[in-house]
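Changelog-linked ticket: pyridoxal-5'-phosphate example.
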Amino acid sequence: MLSSKVSSESHGQDSSYFLGWQEYEKNPFHETLNPSGIVQMGLAENQLSFDLIETWLEEHPEVLGLKKNEESVFRRLALFQDYHGMPAFKDALAKFMAKIRGNKVKFDTSKMVLTAGSTSANETVMFCLADPGDAFLIPAPYYPGFDRDLKWRTGVEIVPIHCVSSNGYKITKVALEEAYERAHKLNLNVKGVLITNPSNPLGTSTTREELDLLLTFTSSKNIHMVSDEIYSGTVFDSPKFTSVLEVAKDKNMDLDKKIHVVYSVSKDLGLPGFRVGLIYSNNEEVVSAATKMSSFGLISSQTQHLLANLLSDERFTTNYLETNKKRLRERRDKLVMGLKKAGIGCLKSNAGLFCWVDLRHLLKSNTFESEHSLWTKIVCEVGLNISPGSSCHCDEPGWFRVCFANMSDQTLEVAMERVKYFVEATEMSSYGGHRKRTMWDSRRKSLINKWVSKLSAGNCESER
Ligand SMILES: Cc1ncc(COP(=O)(O)O)c(C=O)c1O
């Protein structure tokens, strides 16, 4: 009945990444209304700094009132549909992106194509650079949404570059060459490499050395280099963020037509609902084709108007970026500490809205089946929706992505208490199946009771 493309599996919706969200939707945690529900830790949302944007909006009522110098801009905005975007908005976005990169790179607005978020930007880049059946190499583990965004409608294939925990998931020359060879053996024409810097799901930024290696590799093979820098403003710890554009400049490749950057304000500003993203490229042909294609996913004029005003306020952006990073760092620390108390470690992170957590010691065997049953238990019994490594195409069973910026401090505490009790109950294997189970159930009940009584005593702090 439907087209083969629409019915194809490559959308990836059966991945546990999306299934976990469905479980969460059926029984979402709420501090008072559903304290035994599932805590959503599988969603890379940044809710830590909304108050800063809300304060700015309160101080600038004319912007939401669609007024400028006391005159209405409503009619102008209502009619605006130029797919090149509003110059004032692009200027403000270019300055914001340069600021995130310590002003080491400048952005030329004529090389920018606006899109409805990075989802649209990534797909558009694939449409521009590759034909169905061509391939892009991507360091794995990678963002589960790429199966949908890069492959589904374009027909492009993803070939993972296998990165391993033993060296902190570094991108190496050997891994790059091996992926390239593997693609060739599969008769795939490799059109480029796509990285996410900082990495989703690892929460680490790509080092200067890795970027140097990547550019040397892509230019030696005469293929494209795409860098999704959607988390660039979240780098809260050293090493600081280095964009591929900065390294390209150092290598005198700053005008290279095969280097492209994708960005959006979904993570850094926590505004995924605004659908604001872009492609940045030195390649006029890519810019021209992508601009034509952007008709399928333009950014609404009132969103451009609002963000043009917000992002051109230098005092706001400076304070926002600093404060947001500080809050993310504190949150990461809180998560790491909570996990440590339960005897759980994670990859050392310096960016993003999540940690890459090592639960290998809780697996019954070193298999993805075992990872899946642990994940099911964590979602359905412990009540935490986290994303298993397999959904991110990780090669080693037992790693999980755990998000920390989409909830209140109190909810994170509840999650950490649940983890601790779960690990204790699991480790008491000598108690045997039934007894162990009963113990976990009663611990979980006591945890919920404790939480409810804490709330009724008025101890609950409000959400930040
Ligand atoms: C690496 C990466 N790219 C793209 C996206 C999609 O972002 P957007 O909301 O801007 O479409 C995400 C969202 O999680 C992501 O993590």
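Closing comment: Example verified and attached. The pocket of pyridoxal-5'-phosphate is lined by residues 44, 117-119, 143, 145, 196, 200, 228, 230, 264, 266, 272, 277 (CB under 6 Å). The mean pLDDT is 92.
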